Amino acid sequence: MEELGAVRIYNDLVSKLDTYAKGLVKKYEGSMKCSRGGCTECCTVEEIYPVEAYAILAPVMQGKIDVSDLPEVEDREPGKCVFLKNSECSIYDARPIECRIMGYPGKLENEIRYCEKNFIEKPEFEDCDLIDSANVDASLESINMLFIEETEQGVFGEGKVSLENLLGSIKNLP
Ligand code: SF4
């Protein structure tokens, strides 16, 4: 099946963010606590855009994610993301955009914000270290609009998708 344009652009965004994140971890080695199986403090995501849900469902359908490795909805830790299992993200490679940049340094209303667990020593950030999360959000919104258009709302509808419902549906796949 031909790849949807929205999915291609989404994958480009993921790859850009991953390159940025890898570079930052390398530059501030020793300070960054964000990594798989590291800190799970911001693993509290509840809802994602349909295009992000598709990016989780597609590898399941392609057999790249083994459904039996995913947690059970009823084992969810209160207040935590339903995909968290044994303090690790069970869909790490397919995780949504928010999970890829949370805790990284960004500028908001002229103030630099970041997770203090990451940078205890408060480094002097360079401009290239700062993520423009408003810009990332705007890009994701446009990619999602394109996804909705291309799929004629067929996959998850127009609204945000609950991760709990998504995991429930994946677990009930025939
Ligand atoms: S999808 Fe993964 S990284 Fe994102 S909040 Fe859930 S467990 Fe954490």
Task: Describe the protein in words.
The chain has 174 residues and is mainly alpha-helical. The protein has one domain. 39% of the residues lie in helices and 8% in strands. The chain contains 5 helices and 6 strands; from the N terminus they run H-E-H-E-E-H-E-E-H-E-H. The strands form 3 sheets. Strands 1-6 form a two-stranded antiparallel ribbon. Strands 2-3 form a two-stranded antiparallel sheet. Strands 4-5 form a two-stranded antiparallel sheet. A hairpin with a 2-residue loop joins strand 4 and strand 5. Helix 1 runs antiparallel to helix 4. The longest helix has 23 residues. The mean pLDDT is 90. Bound molecules: iron/sulfur cluster. The site of iron/sulfur cluster has 10 residues, from loops.
Question: What attributes does this structure have?
Answer:
174 residues; mainly alpha; two-stranded antiparallel ribbon; 39% helix; 8% strand; binds iron/sulfur cluster
